[in-house]
Structures are given as C-alpha cells and as structure tokens.
Amino acid sequence: MKWSRISFRHRMLIIMTVTGLVQLLMLALAGFAYVKHAQEEEMGLKAQGVASFLAGSDVVVELIENGVEANLKPDFVG
After folding, report:
1. CA-CA to 22 of 20 to 30 Å: which in 5, 48, 52, 69?
2. Cα-atom radius of gyration of the chain, to the nearest Å?
3. Do the Cβ atoms of 61 and 53 come closer than 8 Å?
C-alpha cells in the first residue's frame, strides 16, 4: 500500500489517529509521574512528622544527651 494511493481523507484520518495516540501516551505518562511524585511527597511528610515527634520527645533527647548505653537496662548491655 503506497502513501500516494491513499486518499487525502484517509491520510488525514491516519495522521489524526496517530497524533491522538501519542497525546494519550504523553498524558498517561504525565499522570503516572504526578501520582509517583504525590506519593513520595506524602511519605516524606509522614517521615518528617515522625522525626519531629521523636525530636520533641523527652526520652529521646535524654538518650541522645546521656548516651544510649547509660540508659539501657543491665540485661541488654553486652
């Protein structure tokens, strides 16, 4: 099948179909990238919340200031 044998109407239909498929592929890729970015941002915010909570905890601050080994029970120290 030669391109010159296809009528102008059919050529335009083929071009529009291929263009539409390319646009759909680009839109799908952009959607997946957005969802991935949103999930990573959500996980980062959760980790930041946990870190903030631990940083404000008196027990954690005491462990860091005095050293972990000083606050362990004797059963756990090797």
Report:
1. 5
2. 30
3. no
Sequence-separated (6 or more) residues with CB below 8 Å from residue 55: 61
pTM: 0.59
Calculate the alpha carbon distances from 49 to 28, 52, 56, 59 in Å: 32, 5, 11, 17
Q: Could you tell me how far CA 14 lies from the centroid of its own chain?
A: 36
**Each residue of 16-51: pLDDT tens digit?**
999 999 999 999 999 999 999 999 999 999 999 999
pLDDT digits (tens, 9 = 90+) for 42-74: 999 999 999 999 888 888 888 878 776 666 666
DSSP state of 58: H
> Tokens for 1?
């099948």
Residue 63: Cβ-neighbour burial (10 angstroms; 0-12, 13-18, 19+): middle
